[in-house]
Every structure is written in C-alpha cells, then in structure tokens.
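Continuing the batch. This is chain 6 of the set; chains 1 through 5 are on the previous pages. Same settings as before, nothing changed between runs. Recording input and output for traceability.
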Amino acid sequence: MAKAKHTLKQKRTFWRTHITSWEKTDISQAEYCRRNGLSSRSFGYWKKRQDSVKVNSVSFVPVPLALPMDVGTKAGRAPLCIVLDDRYRIEVGDDFSPLTLQGLLHALERM
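Output for chain 6:
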C-alpha cells in the first residue's frame, strides 16, 4: 500500500504543532518523541528548521521620538531666543502668544 503524500504546508503545520507542544513540557525531546511515536531525527530536523526561520524573520516596531525641550517642533528649528541685558533669556516657540510676549517685554522694560 502506498504512503499518503503530505504537502509541505501540512508537514510544517504538523511539526510546528508538535514542537510548540514539546516546548510547553519539561521533558526531553527524545522522551516527547517516544511518547508521541515520532522520529527524533525528523523532530530535530524540523525544530532546527523552525529555529532558523525564527532567527531570519524580521519585524519592525514603530518607535516614537520625542524632541528635546530646547528644540523647536517644526522642521528642527530652534526657538526664538531673546536675551535682555544678560539678565533675562526668553525662548519663544512657534506657538507663542504675541500679546503675552508684548506684555512680558513691557514689564521687563519697567524693571
């Protein structure tokens, strides 16, 4: 009687299932094969093949980058910096309020 031929996809699924099941146990690979009627050589072959797929697979993870506080947020521009009499340093970003800045400068001039 001829052996039934299995597709490569079926073989991968079969061995992936067994390898995953074995990884959840605390028994040796040889013992797992004995208990499940599997060839330990085939098991080793498919385990190595699965491990090489894990090593060769690549995944990308998005990493959000935060700009330092002293750098403007638009196109990497530095904020406007106003220095008065070497006593005051005012940094103004893109989202400043002109009225608030005008009031601050007026207050500083009176000091």
